[in-house]
Amino acid sequence: MSVIRVVLADDQVLVRAGFRLLLDTEDGFEVVGEAGDGGQAVARAVELRPDVVVMDIRMPGVDGLEATRRIAAEAPDVKVLVLTTFDVDEYVFEALRGGASGFLLKDTEPVELLHALRVVAAGDALLAPRVTRRLIEEFAARPEHRRPEPGALAVLTVREREILALVAGGLSNEEIAAHLVISPATSRTHVSRVMTKLGARDRAQLVVLAYESGLVNPRRTR
């Protein structure tokens, strides 16, 4: 993969400095901009068109959730990796609904952040470490987060619904292929077709749609 261009959005200067130091010493990454609040993050995303914006949630003025929604609308080619802490976990599902392509706990290990950036930049799969997957399942199961649309998945075939459910379970294309005994290429084709039919920008949005439509019952996925 070519160099991954990153914008760092966090209101704490030391946090941004730490992320920049990590990325500057790692091959394959380039920090092309920084932002101290959500409004600046949107402006940097629109102006610089980075591959990924690393987005804090709690920032003054425009917060990370609203900034993520604006980036998804104004610069849909830019991926957003949201960082969250245990006291704001309720925002994780809302961030995904708003257009985030992945998320991490803010105290994650450096190697996990680097992996997350590569995954999100590639648009390959929703980053769902074990602990944060449980958080999504818990909050997605709450009534206020469910917006069932019985006919939302009518455009999908039976096989495509099966594919969608597996994506929502966190399986990669290769894992889906092994589960269904099909080739990885066929798995990728199915996933791409489901994304197109549902108007999803990436796999994270497919997970949201699977939960909201009622196709997946989060309490049964643990």
UniProtKB/TrEMBL annotation:
Domain HTH luxR-type: 149-214
Residue ranges crossing the lipid bilayer per the database entry: none
Gene3D superfamilies found in the cross-reference section: 3.40.50.2300
Domain (Response regulatory) ranges: 5-121
InterPro entries, per database record: CheY-like_superfamily, NreC/VraR/RcsB-like_REC, Sig_transdc_resp-reg_C-effctor, Sig_transdc_resp-reg_receiver, Tscrpt_reg_LuxR_C, WalR-like
Keyword Transmembrane: no
Alphabetical GO biological process terms: phosphorelay signal transduction system; regulation of DNA-templated transcription
Pfam family name, one: GerE
SUPFAM superfamilies: C-terminal effector domain of the bipartite response regulators, CheY-like
GO molecular function: DNA binding
Superkingdom: Bacteria
Protein name: DNA-binding NarL/FixJ family response regulator
UniProt organism field: Saccharothrix violaceirubra
